[in-house]
Amino acid sequence: MKNYKINEIKNMRLLGRNVAGGICKDGAVRLFWAGAALEFCVKAREVWAEIACNYDVQEIWLAVEINGYQITRFIAPKKSTWICLARNLNPDKENLISIIKDTQPMPGDVLHELKITGLRLDDNGDFCNIKPRSCKIEFIGDSITSGEGLAGAPDEMDWITQWMCASKTYARQLAKKMNADWSTISQCGWGLCWGWDGDVTSSIPMYYEQVCGVLSGEQQQAMGSCDAYAYGEGADYVILNLGTNDNSGFSSQDDGKGVDGVAGKAVISEVKHFLGEIRRHNPKAKIIWTWGMLTINIVPELIKKGIKEYMGTAGDMNVYPLELESMDKIEKTDEDKGSRGHPGPLTHKKAAEKLYEFIKSL
Questions:
Q1: pLDDT, tens digit, for every residue of 198-242?
Q2: Which among 326, 40, 278 is positioned nearest to 138, based on CA atoms?
């Protein structure tokens, strides 16, 4: 077997927000957000990765795909460990290996980290050039984009990372359909202006310009979590699935005037502000703002009004509202459903299909 330090490997691809150059100061690759991934292409019989993580309470789950199909899912080890990703592969065939972080970053856990420090191939194995993808998509969301509920039975209601599966979301499915690189920024319970409980600090836009600012511990910052994120040329598409938790927390911010009051105006104002910020970093992107996988009744009209006002002021015609199908209407069997009362596999599949058809129409 041959060992390779991760910072010596040229033919690899990092997906998701990361530090400049992708290698942290200690020479390791870190995966920060849910759905972040390390990919590499090999001609080899056997493939291993040296992986370590840390956390206080909530363990970190990983998924492994070969050529776009998941073969395993496991808890990342706390001690640096060599883990076999594949064995007895056809050594004459190029195989794309993807290591995907299934678990979102955990704000407040100053220990939370996931790092990959090395790869190992059999003696005759070799790395191949990775084929570039057709486009890049950025996803911005909440628990739906983090994959909450995509593992476990429908009656599982404990808030644990075991039931979170970012590798199976509508976002990953759409990226596959479009042959796209992807990046996500999402947090369970968070929103545009406030979280499900009305907490105004649970706001995704507050961290949009950082690598992963929700991880703000001393060691996390030393590894670049709060660095400014380098957008480069930006994404080709930005898809927001944000507003469900603003809807849940709306009453806590309401002054009794409903959509015409302080809370309603705050949502409209933040829609306009956030769209402007997204556009600055993604000048060529088509921006699609979605909702509806979980039924909500207040915020959609505010989102649409905010989009309309932003387009009128900015002259930006590449922003589109899109309602997705609700889990309440399409999930009929346990196989369709997710855990924790969240959208299940069928709803995520339908969302990816609708987004794909909508993007083709553009």
A1: 999 999 999 999 999 999 999 999 999 999 999 999 999 999 999
A2: 278
| Angle in degrees, CA 80, 61, 88, rounded to 5 | 70
CA distance linking residue 162 with residue 149, whole number of Å? 9
- How many angstroms separate the CA atoms of 306 and 22, rounded? 35
Residue that is written with structure tokens 């057709």 in the block? 134
C-alpha dist (Å) from residue 349 to 43, 140, 193, 273, 352: 32, 18, 28, 31, 5
What is the value of pTM for the model shown? 0.98
**In a 3-state reduction of DSSP, which class is residue 83?**
strand
Cβ neighbourhood burial of 79 (10 Å; 0-12, 13-18, 19+): exposed
Q: Which two tokens stand for residue 196?
A: 């499900």
DSSP string computed for 262-315: HHHHHHHHHHHHHHHHHHHH-TT-EEEEEE-SS--SSHHHHHHHHHHHHHHHH-
| 47-54 and 81-86 beta bridge pairing | antiparallel
Q: How far apart are CA 299 and CA 305, in angstroms?
A: 10
Give the DSSP H or E segment for 13: strand 12-15
**Portion of the chain with pLDDT greater than 90, in percent:** 100
Count CB atoms within 10 A of the CB of residue 9: 15
Q: Give 127's pLDDT tier (boundaries 50, 70, 90).
A: very high
